[in-house]
Amino acid sequence: MDPNGRKRKKGNPVHGWVVLDKPYAVGSTPMVSKVKWLFSAQKAGHAGTLDPLATGILPIALGDATKTVPFMMDAEKSYTFEITWGETRSTQDAEGEVTATSEVRPTPAQIEALLPQFRGNIEQAPPKFSAIKINGKRAYDLARAGEAVEMKARPVRVDRFDLVGTTQDTATFEVDCGKGTYIRSLARDIALELGTCGYVSVLRRTRVGPFTLKESIKLDELEGMCDVARVSEGLHPVTTALDDIPVLAITADHAVDLRHGRGIDAPDNLPEAAQMSDLIRAELEGVLIALCSPQAGVLIPKRVFNL
Prior knowledge:
This protein has 307 residues and is of the alpha+beta class. The chain has three domains: 16-75 and 211-240, Pseudouridine synthase (2-Layer Sandwich); 77-208, Pseudouridine synthase; 245-304, Archaeosine Trna-guanine Transglycosylase, Chain: A, domain 4, CATH 2.30.130.10. Helices cover 21% and strands 35% of the residues. The chain has nine helices and 20 strands. The chain has helices at 28-39, 69-73, 108-114, 139-144, 183-193, 219-224, 228-231, 252-259, 272-275, and strands spanning 16-22, 44-46, 55-62, 77-85, 87-89, 98-101, 120-124, 133-134, 137-138, 154-166, 170-177, 198-208, 211-212, 217-218, 235-236, 247-249, 264-265, 280-284, 287-295, 298-304. The strands form four sheets. Strands 1, 2, 3, 4, 7, 10, 11, 12, 13, 14 and 15 form an eleven-stranded mixed beta sheet that branches. Strands 16-18-19-20-17 form a five-stranded mixed beta sheet, with helices on one face. Strands 5-6 form a two-stranded antiparallel sheet. Strand 12 (198-208) and strand 13 (211-212) form a beta hairpin. The radius of gyration is 23 Å and the shape is elongated.
């Protein structure tokens, strides 16, 4: 118990982001549990699931960084992936069973000619083996149980889609895309348009918002840092997920009000960027206090932080 009679939380009050370079053949959830254990953190979560057979950037939030996960979930993402031609798999990746085959092998010119129709705002049906919920159940659970799963098309955005290499049986691509875009669905639809079969044989996420492979750390590197002090070298600030949100410097008295859930008067000299934003970062001497919503001249705290 703390001095106020409240039950103490287990673990250390660690706050920030770990940009993990997720290894192959491991799920996202076990990686979150492992990183939480390495940091002895009280809370942990992740921003955007990576399939077990995918590698690359898995942003893991610790402590109060979990309050900023929605902002990282909405961030743009980049991938490198490979399609292997000749087979359709039930999961659209190497894990699934072969459901169809084809002898057709598209040429680089045929692929290049097709790509423009997959750029911009497009409609895409998610894979049946995905974490999307249908009537409260995960689509992949329904699919594995043999139930008929209807995945409705929905709008997604693809900003860049480039062919970067080919062999007789494969093609390698780089993609920049918005929230909710499934690479396995892109591969499925491209193969169909080219009159052949194909599945994702390699998938690597290279960017999530501000996080790139340059900022990432591998699991064995984290494990090699023997104590929490050294492990913290791999921690990025909570505010990394909030870089696009305008900052307002506040007083100590205003910080007390916000931390108690009370709104504060917006200053007359509120920066123009803040006036145009739905959210404002209220900071005291560079420390994040709250995310506020400006409403009729008052800043209302929507997320309060204890950093």
